[in-house]
Amino acid sequence: MKVLGIETSCDETGVAVYDTQEGLLAHCLHSQIDLHAAYGGVVPELASRDHIRRLPILLTQTLELAGLNAADIDAVAYTSGPGLAGALLVGASVAESFALARGIPALPVHHLEGHLLSPLLSADPPQFPFVALLVSGGHTQLMRVRRVGDYALLGESVDDAAGEAFDKTAKLLGLGYPGGPQLARLATQGVAGRFRLPRPMLHSGDLDFSFSGLKTAVLNVVSGPEWDPERMADLAAEFQHAVAEVLCAKALAALKKTGLKTLVVAGGVGANQHLRQVLDEALQKKGGRVHYPEPALCTDNGAMIAFAGALRLAAGEVVGGEPAVRIRPRW
Ligand code: KG4
Ligand code: ZN
C-alpha cells in the first residue's frame, strides 16, 4: 500500500509517499522560515497562502521522486490538527480532493502522532512499548506508547512548551527567528553555571513541566543593573542546561514509573545536541536507550504523516462517512 502524506499544520509544507512494503519512497519539504523571519514569528495568513503556492509543486515533485503517478497512490493521510486553522485547511482540502478524485481513502492524522512515531522510520527503530518525550514548539508531553494508537499521557507542560520557551527566550535575548536553533548555537559558546537559573518543577513529584518561569528568570537577568551583554552565551548555555536537566529528570522518572527502558524523543527540540547528550548519558547509565528520528525528520514533515497514516490503515482502520475537509486546530 502506497500512502501519500501531507503536512501543513504550521510553517512547513511537507509531502511524502510511504510504501508499507518498501518504506519511505520520497519526501519533499518547503520551510517558510524566510517568509516569517521579518515578523519574528509565524504569521498565520502568510503561512496559509504559502502552503497554497507550494503544495501543488511539492506534490508533483514527490510523485516524480518516487517514480509514481497519482494513480499509484492507494490512500492519503493528512495532518488534521492541532495547528493553525487556515494552514491545516490547505493540506486537508488538497488531500481530500486528491482522494475523492481517485476514489481512495483520506485519513486525518494527529500531528503529534506523526512526531511520536517518526523514530520508527529510522534504520534502527525502537521496539514497542516505549516512553515518548514529545518536545515541539507547541507541546511538551511524556507518553507511554504500547503500540500504534495506544498512547497514555503521563505528564505535560502546564504552561509554555519547551520549544516555545526556547523561542521566547531567544527573542528577548534579541536573537533571530526561529529562536530555538539560534539559542542552541549561542549556548555552545558559553559556560553553564556562571548564571544560575531555576529548574522548574524538578522536584514536583509528578511528570509535569513548567517553562514559562524560566523565560521570566532570563528576563530578570537581562533587565537587571548588572547585566553585561558580553555574557549572553553563558546565559544561553545555562538556559539550555536548565531545560535539558528537567526534561531528562522527568523522562527518567517516566521510565521508572512504567518500568520501561526505551525512550523515544520526537519534535523540534529533539534536534538539540545538548539535550541528546544529556539523555544519551543518563539512559546509558540506566542500561536503557534513547531513539531519535533521523535529523531530517525531527521537525515538521510529510513523511511522519504518511507513515502514521500507513500504520493505521495497515492495522485495519477504516475511513468512513461522506468526503469532508476534516480539520481540528485544537485537537
Ligand atoms: O516539531 P516542530 O518542528 O514544530 C512544532 O510542531 O512545534 O518544533 C519546532 C520547535 C521550535 O520551538 C524550535 O525553536 C525548536 O523546535 N527547535 C529547537 C532546536 N531546533 C528546533 N530548540 C532547541 N534546540 C534546537 N536545536
Ligand atoms: Zn511539529
Automatic annotation (TrEMBL):
The reaction(s) this protein catalyses: L-threonylcarbamoyladenylate + adenosine(37) in tRNA = N(6)-L-threonylcarbamoyladenosine(37) in tRNA + AMP + H(+)
Required cofactor names: Fe(2+)
NCBIfam families cross-referenced by the UniProt entry: gcp_kae1 (TIGR00329), T6A_TsaD_YgjD (TIGR03723)
Organism: Thauera terpenica 58Eu
Sequence positions that bind substrate: L134, V135, S136, G137, G138, D167, G180, N272
GO biological process: tRNA threonylcarbamoyladenosine modification
Sorted UniProt keywords: Acyltransferase, Cytoplasm, Iron, Metal-binding, Transferase, tRNA processing
Cofactor binding description: Binds 1 Fe(2+) ion per subunit.
Enzyme class: transferase
EC numbers for this chain: 2.3.1.234
Subcellular location: Cytoplasm
Gene Ontology CC: cytoplasm
Superkingdom of origin organism: Bacteria
PANTHER family: TRNA N6-ADENOSINE THREONYLCARBAMOYLTRANSFERASE, TRNA N6-ADENOSINE THREONYLCARBAMOYLTRANSFERASE, MITOCHONDRIAL
Function statement: Required for the formation of a threonylcarbamoyl group on adenosine at position 37 (t(6)A37) in tRNAs that read codons beginning with adenine. Is involved in the transfer of the threonylcarbamoyl moiety of threonylcarbamoyl-AMP (TC-AMP) to the N6 group of A37, together with TsaE and TsaB. TsaD likely plays a direct catalytic role in this reaction.
Residues engaged in binding Fe cation: H111, H115, D300
InterPro entries (UniProt xref): ATPase_NBD (IPR043129), Gcp-like_dom (IPR000905), KAE1/TsaD (IPR017861), TsaD (IPR022450)
Occurrences of domain Gcp-like (ranges): 24-307
Location (main, coarse): cytoplasm
Family in the record: Belongs to the KAE1 / TsaD family.
Gene Ontology molecular functions: iron ion binding; tRNA N(6)-L-threonylcarbamoyladenine synthase activity
Protein name stated in the entry: tRNA N6-adenosine threonylcarbamoyltransferase
